[in-house]
Specification:
The complex is a heterotrimer of chains A (196), B (191) and C (301).
Chain A (H helix, E strand, L loop, with lengths): L2 H15 L2 E8 L2 E6 L4 H10 L4 E10 L4 E9 L6 E9 L15 H12 L30 H8 L18 H16 L6
Parallel strand pairs in A: 2-5
Antiparallel strand pairs in A: 1-2, 3-4, 4-5
Chain B lengths: L12 H17 L3 E5 L8 H5 L11 E2 L8 E5 L4 H13 L5 E5 L2 H4 L21 E3 L6 H16 L5 H7 L1 H12 L11
Chain C lengths: L1 H32 L9 H11 L7 H19 L16 H21 L3 H32 L4 H10 L5 H4 L1 H15 L10 H4 L10 H25 L6 H20 L6 H26 L4
Helix pairs in contact in C: 1-3, 1-10, 1-11, 2-10, 3-4, 3-10, 4-5, 4-10, 5-8, 5-12, 8-10, 8-12, 10-11
Classes of the chains: A alpha+beta (196), B alpha/beta (191), C mainly alpha (301).
């Protein structure tokens, strides 16, 4: 079966159950639909029936300017070479999305991960709030755009202090010329010791 | 005439202990068994160090399966918080004398992960480190040189990180708790 | 009596020193096989003394006692082992069955101690070790009984003498199928590669030894060296005609251990069910055919 027909078929399936806000063809083997939050479950079950029976990944993107999270469900078919991305926007404040473990049981761990890194709640998943990757996390979820990892790292982890003597960029430093000399020699060695 | 009779000089207990310790050091530095904690990318330098290219075994070194049997804890690469918890657990299981060798720039100052929320910056704040091998990643000659340096340190009685851990236990524990919150490992797969 | 005991202890010590050196030489040989330089020949001694110099931890009474019991059992077994036809500590007591029974003391002590450590890998390792033992013992015992039947004695000295008097007619040649079974069982006994299932460092973290460190592991290494000495000498005496003097014994011992080690180093590792299936299929079949040929038909080459 050729892939153009496939894409048309998928479009028909999705349009039958959901209102497509945006369609995007990323390349020959990947297409994306942006749909309403409430249509996600129907779309996923329809696509599962049509043969896209593996959930490859569930991820989230933080659009902090518009104050939205974008959830991305990536579906995979073992018979036809076509990935389908289902995208849905949800509100950033008190983010919540109904769980899809009734359709894809394997989504349990993806949802736990998304909860841990973005703080999205998944009612319907019995243990989405349990910790999975981070242990004893004590700050806002780390992959949100308003989280500053560098500040967190400075606060939590002791840094090694270097005295100024080691700085090679200081022009007052007497070893500066020696270093230049050594670099020159290294460059000459790079050509196998031959002069150009 | 000088007497040829052998008169043993009585040694004090401390001197005898020192003699025994030196003999032990000879055996210890010629048979270093590694526990490879392959956390990061520097672990890729170990296969050439073990196999025919550099042949670690000619120095009497070799990989071991469990922390109880090993002498060196080899930290190869960056340490995330989650890994550090297991690393401390492993380190405390090893039988003494024990040594720590850290490969790569990540355990020294964080390396390219210096501003990450999940990777620690300085390993020697949490457990004592005897030898650091710098580089991102260090090449295999540097790794082998690090081991030879450790042997030299053992010979000159400078490899006493494990003693430091006993003496400054409260300092190390305090550091561990500031960064980790809780040192004990709790997760749903162990309970 | 005291002289006998001293000779026995001397044999055990000699066995330890011999096997440790030959083990070290074999590590070097394997290194050359893999195009490496290999360790020094006395590396195994350094390893053992280093382990004895380290601080060990205890997991309780059973754990400590088991190690000592295993070491004592294995030294007691080694004391009965004849080196040549003449060098034997307790004459009349070098019966084949003594070794079969006394070896079990060492094995059981180690099993007890390893289970006492409470680590699940140790229990799995012990279970696998006992299963492997069950697998190789059956074909090996059938061949050994055939040899005892043919030579009309179960004393190792008598078996040696029997082979040497008949124009050096070694049992590995006289009973070729049995000899093959003997080599395979020996590899199982020594825990060499295809049958290394109960050590399996990458899989169950060195099995029974998982919780050992420091002194206890050192004692376990000594135990291992002496038990290898017993098993290889048993093979030399049963199949290779024993030895009329100590040099012949050394040559035969070295050859057997090196050949087995070389075979081991070009093999992968079986799973535990494959080990049992293997031993109960070909070696058992060959052993029964050999016993039938040798005892009922009387065809001994």
């Amino acid at each position: 079966m050729n892939s153009m027909n496939n894409i048309e078929r998928v479009k028909e399936i999705v349009e039958k159950v959901a209102k497509v806000r945006k369609f995007e063809q990323i390349d020959k083997f990947q297409i994306a639909f942006e749909i309403e939050k409430n249509d996600v479950h129907q779309t996923l079950s329809a696509l599962k029936l049509a043969g896209w029976k593996q959930l490859s990944y569930l991820s989230a993107i933080d659009w902090i300017e518009t104050s939205k999270f974008e959830l991305v469900y990536v579906l995979f078919n073992w018979d036809e070479a076509l990935y389908i991305q289902i995208r849905a926007m949800i509100e950033r404040e008190a983010a919540e999305m109904n769980s899809i473990i009734s359709i894809f049981p394997g989504a349990k761990y993806y949802e736990r991960e998304a909860h841990e890194f973005f703080g999205i709640n998944f009612p319907g998943n019995p243990d989405y709030h349990k910790q999975l990757i981070l242990e004893n996390w004590d700050d806002i979820p780390p992959l949100r755009k308003d989280f500053d990892p560098s500040v967190y790292s400075d606060r939590k982890f002791p840094k090694r202090e270097y005295s100024v003597d080691y700085s090679v960029k200081d022009p007052e430093n007497k070893s500066f010329e020696k270093i230049k000399e050594r670099e020159k020699r290294a460059l000459s060695l790079r050509t196998g010791g031959q002069k150009k | 005439m000088k007497s040829t009779k052998f008169t043993p000089v009585p040694l004090t207990k401390a001197e005898t202990d020192k003699k025994w310790w030196e003999i032990g050091d000879f055996f210890r530095r010629n048979s270093l068994w590694l526990l490879m904690y392959c956390t990061g990318c520097c672990a890729i330098e170990l296969p050439p160090a073990m196999t025919s290219a550099y042949d670690m075994e000619r120095l009497g070194m070799g990989p071991m399966a469990t922390p109880r049997q090993a002498d060196i804890l080899l930290v190869s690469g960056y340490l995330s918080l989650k890994t550090l918890r297991r690393l401390i657990y492993t380190y405390e299981q090893m039988s003494e004398p024990r040594y720590v060798v850290a490969l790569g720039s990540c355990p020294i100052n964080g390396g390219i992960y210096h501003d990450s929320h999940a990777v620690i910056n300085q390993l020697d704040q949490y457990i004592p480190v005897d030898v650091y091998v710098a580089g991102c990643m260090p090449n295999t000659e540097a790794v082998m040189n690090g081991f030879v340096d450790l042997m030299d340190q053992i010979k000159h009685k400078r490899a006493n990180g494990w003693k430091k851990y006993h003496e400054n236990y409260s300092w190390y524990k305090a550091n561990q708790i500031t960064s980790l919150g809780e040192v004990d490992v709790h997760d749903e797969f162990h309970e | 009596m005291i002289v006998n005991i001293l000779v026995g202890i001397g044999i055990a010590l000699f066995g330890f020193a011999l096997q440790t050196s030959i083990g070290g030489i074999n590590r070097k040989i394997v290194g050359r096989l893999q195009k490496r330089h290999g360790p020094r020949w006395y590396q195994e001694f350094i390893d053992i003394f280093k382990l004895l110099s380290k601080r060990g931890i205890s997991h309780g009474w059973i754990y400590d006692f088991g190690v000592i019991m295993a070491l004592g059992g294995i030294i007691a077994t080694a004391m009965f082992m004849p080196l040549t036809v003449d060098i034997v500590a307790f004459k009349q007591f070098d019966n084949f069955f003594i070794f079969v029974y006394l070896l079990a003391v060492g094995m059981l002590g180690m099993a007890m101690s390893a289970s006492g450590s409470g680590n699940p890998w140790a229990s799995i390792g012990v279970m696998r070790a006992l299963t492997t033992m069950l697998a190789y013992e059956v074909p090996f015992l059938i061949v050994a009984l055939t040899i005892i039947n043919v030579s009309d004695s179960s004393s190792l000295t008598a078996i040696q003498a029997f082979q040497q008097t008949a124009g050096n007619n070694w049992f590995i040649i006289a009973l070729p199928l049995g000899g093959l079974v003997g080599v395979l069982s020996l590899m199982g006994m020594l825990g060499k590669k295809p049958f290394e299932t109960y050590i399996a460092p990458a899989e169950i973290a060195s099995g029974p030894m998982v919780e050992y460190g420091g002194k206890q592991l050192g004692m376990l290494f000594i135990l291992h060296e002496i038990s290898v000495f017993i098993e290889v000498s048993l093979f030399v005496h049963l199949f290779l005609g024993g030895a009329s003097n100590i040099f012949i014994f050394l040559i035969k011992y070295f050859t057997v251990y090196t050949v087995v080690n070389l075979i081991s180093n070009v093999n992968g590792r079986f799973k535990i069910d494959q080990v049992v299936k293997f031993f109960y299929k070909w070696p058992l079949l060959l052993a029964i055919i050999q016993a039938f040929i040798a005892i009922y038909l009387g065809w001994v080459i």
